Amino acid sequence: SGITGFGIYVQLENTVEGFIRIDSLYDDYYDHIEEKYMLIGRHTRKIYKLGDKIDIIVDDVDMDRNEIDFIVADLK
């Protein structure tokens, strides 16, 4: 549901929201292109853009802060 220089905000079909941290995208170094709402890999040129469907896995749940961290399933 959003892309920043820190990562990707994700909303699941059941409206649960979480975050994919940019440092968990370890296959490349990703640049944030703010005006295009996207991250692009410097070497792989892989693009993550607003609205993309991404297969994810739950990485961490912090009940005290009501936060869920996801990782991209393909990178596990």
Automatic annotation (TrEMBL):
Coiled coil feature spans: none
GO MF terms, alphabetically ordered = nucleic acid binding
Q: Which Gene3D superfamilies match?
A: Nucleic acid-binding proteins (2.40.50.140)
- Tell me where in this chain the S1 motif domain is found: 1-73
InterPro entries under this entry? NA-bd_OB-fold, S1_domain
Note the SUPFAM superfamilies from the entry.
Nucleic acid-binding proteins (SSF50249)
So which residues are the signal peptide here?
A: none
Q: What is this protein called?
A: S1 RNA-binding domain-containing protein
Organism of derivation: Candidatus Allocopromorpha excrementavium
